[in-house]
Amino acid sequence: MKKECEIVQDLLFGYQDGTLHMASKELVEKHLKSCKECSEIFREIKNDGKEEEEQKEEVDYLKKVNKKIGKKNKLLMVVGIILGMIILFNIFIFIYYYHEAGKISIYLKDDITEEQMENIKTSILNIDKNAKIEYYSKNDALEKMKERFKDRENLLSGYGETNNPLPAYYVIETSLENAKKIDETIMTLEGVEKTTGSFEANPYEFMLQTLL
User: Fold this and answer.
1) Rounded CA gap, 126 and 134, in Å?
2) From the CB of residue 172, how many other CB atoms can be counted at a distance below 10 Å?
3) Which end of the chain is more exposed for a tag (fewer CB within 10 A), N or C?
4) pTM reported for the whole predicted model
5) Does residue 104 contact residue 132 with C-beta atoms inside 8 Å?
6) Whose CA is closest to 103, among 212, 207, 205, 196?
7) Cβ of 89: how many Cβ atoms within 10 Å?
8) SS3 of 197, please?
9) Tens of pLDDT, residue by residue, the chain (212 residues)
10) 3-class SS of residue 110
11) Residue 196's beta-bridge partner residues?
């Protein structure tokens, strides 16, 4: 009997896995019915098998959970990157707007006097003593226009000093807060034809206009 127990016990794992030949399977089943010791050993093997299966199921479940968490984290990371880029883009637009929208162009009448020009500059500096003022003569304006349309220079080829249609002008760089004040003041002064500025523009529209 002892010899048979040793044989059966060697076969128990194969019996549990269902890999035994029919003759070996029948031997094990017959022996287990009459041997309490081997039956107990087989019960332990089955319990161990259940525990291993449960552990495997737990591991598989954790893998699935980790996979879902990993996908979720990747999605959150992508969303975070996109949101970050949107925020940075908006910050860039508003910084650019507040820096560039403070520029004002003041176009002068052809018959403007030196006294009127000085009055314009004084009025600007009274509002913002740090304002940057650049003067462009009629000839400067024509040259800049020709440079701008250099691919179609024939459009302006007939214009020169004697028939220059463009006005002289000032370009003022100031803060966005002072731009409107300067614009309102300058428009009341003699010698000013018109002013242009973007201090009341929408930041996004201003950006598009600048790029285009």
Assistant:
1) 16
2) 26
3) C
4) 0.54
5) no
6) 196
7) 11
8) strand
9) 577 887 777 777 777 777 888 878 888 778 878 888 888 877 887 776 666 666 666 666 667 767 777 777 788 888 888 999 999 998 888 888 877 778 899 999 999 999 999 999 999 999 999 999 999 999 898 888 878 777 666 666 677 777 888 999 999 999 888 998 999 999 899 999 999 888 777 878 777 766 66
10) coil
11) 105
d(C-alpha 174, C-alpha 181), whole Å = 11
CA distance 106 to 189: 11
Sequence-distant (≥ 6) Cβ neighbours of residue 31 within 8 angstroms: 4, 5, 8, 38
User: For residue 152, which amino acid is it?
Assistant: R
Contact 172, 132 (CB under 8 A): yes
Contact 104, 197 (CB under 8 A): yes
Q: Is 25 exposed, middle or buried (0-12, 13-18, 19+ CB in 10 A)?
A: middle
Tokens of 71: 């996908």
Q: Where are the alpha helices (DSSP H) in 101-202?
A: 114-127, 138-148, 176-186
The residue type at 138: K
